[in-house]
Amino acid sequence: MRSKRHGESPTAAQYFRSVAWYLLRLAWSADRRAVIACVAVSLAQGVGTAVAVTVVRRVATVVLTSVGGNGARSGGVAALLIPAAVLAVAGLASQVLSGIETYRQGVLADKTTVAATEQVLAAAMRAELVRFEDPAFYDRVVRARTASAYPGSMVQSILALLHAAIYAVALTASVALMAWMTAPLLLLAVVPVWLESRRANRSWYELALAQSEQLRGTMHFESMLTGRAEAAEIRAFAAGPTLIRRWRRDRTAMLAEQIRWHRIYTLRMTAARVASVAVTMTAIAALAVLAGAGVLSFATATAIVVATQLLMAQLTSLATTVSTIGKRRLFITDLMRFTEDMPPETPTPPPHPFTTLTAQGVGFTYPGSETPALTGITLELRAGEVIGLVGHNGSGKTTLTKILAGLYSPTVGQLSRDGNPLSANDLPALRASTTLVLQTPARYPLTAVDNIAFGAPTPDHVAVTTAATRAGIHPHLAELPHGYNTILSKERTGGTDLSGGQWQKIAIARAFYRDTPLLILDEPTTGLDPLAEADLYHRLHTLHPGHTIILVTHRLANIQGADRIYVLDHGRITESGTHQELLSQQGTYHHLYTLQASAYHPHLSPHHLRNSTTTPL
């Protein structure tokens, strides 16, 4: 649902209700007993307030009667004892109930915020990977993450709104029973504040929406300036002051717009509150006239004035709370839409071995781009084969591996497994059957066990050790302070860090642990020394014969023994065949190979190498 840009429509009221119901459902799922307790306390306090007004009227009657009789009425003092005792008990009970309500609301707010954050995280994980390539989608992610901090306080605001509404109804009913003609004036007093709150809500959200991309940029600068990964390079280049200046420039521009909004809001809200006070004073003046004319007793007028002051406090609280909810309501709408728009969660299927995996005329274009990253890709993978992918940077190798891994769905063309076309619903099964080792693997601040058994609900420690041994990282992990239970991050207490090559081995151990039918290695040896690199490729040959391996590499010596090599250029397959077949074609592969070989055999010229198809690297 969308509200009109100029003026609130009935849709805005529906918006408000949908947000309120969403938050209450979220709170109910987080702690239903706390919700029930808070509502019950508000009802009890509302009824107690109405009773207190009646008691105040009784006290005023007794006092005025006693004063009228010059204090001679013998029962005057005694008549005050009972209502005074009632007021004392009511006040004490109100304080106790307020304490209970504050505790319950605090607990409920924390639990609701946790529940909302979990919803955002789960929704983000359900989103297709390609959507993260779209800046507009990433803006939605940032807005949803920002909004996930609000539900707890928003639930408190809704409960405060309910609390104020119950008070207002009880007090209005009390005033209406004593002097019905003043009730409309009291309700009218809140209208100016209410209208200004609604206007301010819309303008604040429009400002926040306009600044969302700028906010994301400043958050990126903050992350770089305080992050560990960038710390060394920023200091080496003395880039800190420059980055801070750029951050300050953007932040100052945002702040100037926010200050302007607050200035306008303060002026308009002050005028609205002055108007509300004027209406309230009119109501009190009307009471004085009615009391002077004998239409109301002075005791009743006194009770109504007390009730009016309490009612105005509640109505002001009501308007302020509505303003707070409305101001953040639109952010909660971002949260609701983000969690609702993501595809539903599906159970992770088990790995599915295949005999053949084929791509037929596959093409892919990234969101927001007009130039295809891949065009007309046709290839076949057979169980047990080793496949090489070669090409210049930007030729489409990584994009192709993500399609073959089921992470991207082809824009055009068809993937098939064992001759059966794969739809978008089949991609989770393909992902479950694939392990992808990236050139720069993620470094998770978890234990070594959890890094290797990443994604496994219950790690198999024996399998973890076996995988680490096969990857050549076991001796180092065994020597850590807590062995495999050491946290691999210096940002965590008691944690430690690994070298780039050791992290690469962790990623490879993760692949061995996962043990899927298809293993894709995208420049897996970038951080390894020559001995470790040679050892890794030897270990890869020890995999089960049924495993299919795709090697993406610039080092052509590593794929000489591949069953088939595909050469990509500008998103197309331009050459394919075995190492010897490609050398004989005298094409791109032959050119790249001779360039690399000449570096290892300086006594041979590239021209001489071009005439050879057997020179080893």
From TrEMBL:
Domain ABC transporter: start-end pairs: 357-595
SUPFAM superfamilies: ABC transporter transmembrane region (SSF90123), P-loop containing nucleoside triphosphate hydrolases (SSF52540)
GO terms assigned for molecular function: ABC-type oligopeptide transporter activity; ATP binding; ATP hydrolysis activity
Presence of keyword Cytoplasm: no
Keyword Transcription regulation: no
Keyword field: ATP-binding, Membrane, Nucleotide-binding, Transmembrane, Transmembrane helix
Highest taxon listed in the record's lineage: Bacteria
GO cellular component: plasma membrane
Membrane topology: Multi-pass membrane protein
Pfam families noted in UniProt: ABC_tran
Annotated compartments: Cell membrane
Residue ranges of the TM segments: 34-56, 76-97, 149-169, 175-195, 270-292
Stretches assigned to the ABC transmembrane type-1 domain: 36-327
Listed PANTHER family: ATP-BINDING CASSETTE SUB-FAMILY B MEMBER 10, MITOCHONDRIAL, ATP-DEPENDENT PERMEASE MDL1, MITOCHONDRIAL
Protein name: ATP-binding cassette domain-containing protein
Species name: Nocardia terpenica
Lineage of the organism: Bacteria, Bacillati, Actinomycetota, Actinomycetes, Mycobacteriales
